[in-house]
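To whoever is on call:

I kicked off a structure prediction for a single chain this morning and the downstream step that reads the tokens threw a length-mismatch warning. I double-checked the sequence; it's 216 residues and nothing unusual in it as far as I can see. Pasting both halves so you can look.
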Amino acid sequence: MGAPADKSKRLLRQIFIIVDVLIVLYIVLDVIAQSLPPHYSPISQAESLLAVGPYGYVMTVNFLIRGVFSLLFVYAMVQVLSVFGENWRNYKFGLYTIGIWGAGALLLAGFPATGRTLVTHAIIAYIVLFAAPLGEFSISLKLGRVKALAGVRKTALVIALFGVLFMVFFLWLLPFLHGLKSGYDGLFERLLLGSVIAWMGVVSTYALRHVANLTQ
């Protein structure tokens, strides 16, 4: 294996550490952003509204953070699969859709949910919220093929399945349940967002803990 393999392992560990740290930072900033605007309700109001108004810069930064850790996660997963002898293209649907989620987060930072950019923001948000759960579910189904990641497959699959269910409910059913949507739109959106980010955090942390075995 030698020095190149050791260097690859160190780099992967560093990337997964950064992903985990940025996920924690994202959660902290999200809580801060929700506490700043007066009368904001995370239960009934969408997360995107946090990027509008005098404190909007906090959520704008958070969108950027979400984009960065998501794209880093995709890069790290490609490297993990390659190091362990798996063809990452067998996972390309999942990796591409998570990449779309990450790139979408960066775009959301530049298109706030207000004024002339509202429609663009809504389209991007719909695409990323639709894509990411399906991508994570697709990857979870195949994690058993990778010895170093097989141990996290069941947990990842359960989280991803909930993510798909939340996605179907939030994007396709909730719009027709007007009373429920008006009072709990923010809650169901956060369940969907939380499932996507939790999946990445769980897989990243597991990979970080087992990266020393990736080239054995």
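Update from on-call: the warning came from a stale cache, not from the record. Cleared it. Sanity check on the structure: The CA atoms of residues 156 and 166 lie 15 Å apart.
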